[in-house]
């Protein structure tokens, strides 16, 4: 369920609302009790966040050992 916030409060607390939206929250802005707008996280921002997470995970992967490296390790007594 989206949190409802009046237009005056939305205006005065916009930086805080944007930080919360960036964190994944959604809001419905009302004017005199009537819903007039939904503020939701950007789809593009979500895609960028997912891509950044994937890139970080790929950096953490250990590189695969080739057959040649494995044979070299074995000849050195490391395998």
UniProtKB/TrEMBL annotation:
<dbReference type="Pfam" id="PF02604">
    <property type="entry name" value="PhdYeFM_antitox"/>
</dbReference>
<comment type="similarity">
    <text>Belongs to the phD/YefM antitoxin family.</text>
</comment>
<comment type="function">
    <text>Antitoxin component of a type II toxin-antitoxin (TA) system.</text>
</comment>
<protein>
    <recommendedName>
        <fullName>Antitoxin</fullName>
    </recommendedName>
</protein>
<dbReference type="InterPro" id="IPR006442">
    <property type="entry name" value="Antitoxin_Phd/YefM"/>
</dbReference>
<dbReference type="InterPro" id="IPR036165">
    <property type="entry name" value="YefM-like_sf"/>
</dbReference>
């Amino acid at each position: 369920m989206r949190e409802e916030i009046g237009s005056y409060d939305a205006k005065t607390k916009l930086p805080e609302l944007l930080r919360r939206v960036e964190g994944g929250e959604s809001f419905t802005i009302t004017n005199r009790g009537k819903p007039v707008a939904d503020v939701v996280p950007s789809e593009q921002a979500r895609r960028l966040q997912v891509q950044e997470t994937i890139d970080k995970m790929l950096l953490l992967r250990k590189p695969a050992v080739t057959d040649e490296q494995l044979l070299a390790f074995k000849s050195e007594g490391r395998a």
